[in-house]
Amino acid sequence: MRAMNFQKVFVPLTGLLLIGLAYRSFGWPGVAVAAGGIVMFLLLHFTRTMQVLKRATDRPIGSVASAVMLNAKLKPRVTLLHVVAMTRSLGELRTPPDQQPETYRWTDGGQSHVDAVFLNGKLQSWGLTRPPTEDDATAAEPPPGA
């Protein structure tokens, strides 16, 4: 939780510091350039977010092409937006809304699924679950006459 609060404070303070240094070094033209750069950064981030969400609207919630490939590509501390961009689908929320940590599920056509746990928007853990196959079921049964 401390890391999230640190980011919420650090990023705006860095922007203010950048604007202050630009004013001190170049006056109002420097402020205009620094503010323009900050606005450009915010617009690029907003555009990326909208593109990811636009691509996700074309697929059902919680679907993914291959749960096994998603499991292999996931890394700790990636953002939920990054995972949505990888899957091109919003995850199926498995926990009550606004409760931390959040658990999302992505399922493929073979009913394999990946459950991902996010704490404050960052991936903490994940797990792949595969449905039992017929080979597994026959191996578990004792042979007839035993």
Task: Please tag this protein with its features.
4-stranded antiparallel sheet; Beta-lactamase Inhibitory Protein, Chain:B, domain 1; 2 domains
Q: Would you give an account of this structure?
A:
The chain is of the alpha+beta class and about 150 residues long. It has 2 domains: about 1-55; about 60-135, 2-Layer Sandwich (Beta-lactamase Inhibitory Protein, Chain:B, domain 1). The chain is about 50% helix and about 15% strand. The protein is built from 5 helices and 4 strands. The chain has helices spanning about 1-25, 30-55, 65-75, 80-85, 135-140, and strands at about 90-95, 100-105, 115-120, 120-130. Strand 2 (about 100-105) and strand 3 (about 115-120) form a beta hairpin. The longest helix is centred in the first third of the chain and has 29 residues, at about 30-55. About 10% of the residues are buried.
Quick overview:
The protein is an alpha+beta fold and 146 residues long.
Major β-sheet strand ordering: 1-2-3-4
Can you tell me the CATH architecture of the largest domain? 2-Layer Sandwich
Structure classification: alpha+beta
Series of secondary-structure elements, N-terminal to C-terminal: HHHHEEEEH
